[in-house]
# Entry
Amino acid sequence: DFFPSWKLQTEDDITASVVVPSKSLKGLSHREKQPSLKFSQNCEFRLFQRPDEAIHRGFDKTTELDMSKPGNFISNFQPMKRDEIKELVEDTIGFQKFTEPMQQLLLNFLAADSPEFCVSSSNPRIVDGKPTANPRYLQDSQELTDARQYHLSKM
# Structure
């Protein structure tokens, strides 16, 4: 049998917590005997992702979709100029392996005058002559951007 699943990352590094005396809380179970209770809540809208499989065009569909959206924080991906992006696009077989969102990002970049640089999910930053093994980007928390799916996964 195969049961598909959906991974939910709900926190990374920033969580706010408060410890409250139990006697100051209303509606607690009569079985609650602790003198205080701790409540924690994740405070992040974005979570760091390390998309190791994104170097394979079209393989990491989530990363390609995320990176195609405006307003990203991207780290350790190679900043590429128009001539480099044009080479990616003109490699027809390689270009077709990208998902539609990544293809559109690259084509739209070529069609515009700015910005000066673009990134491709398959091109990590070059450090000391070789691709870094640590590409990262901030992904919007799926808990917030896809609340229905998040709710269903917790049921």
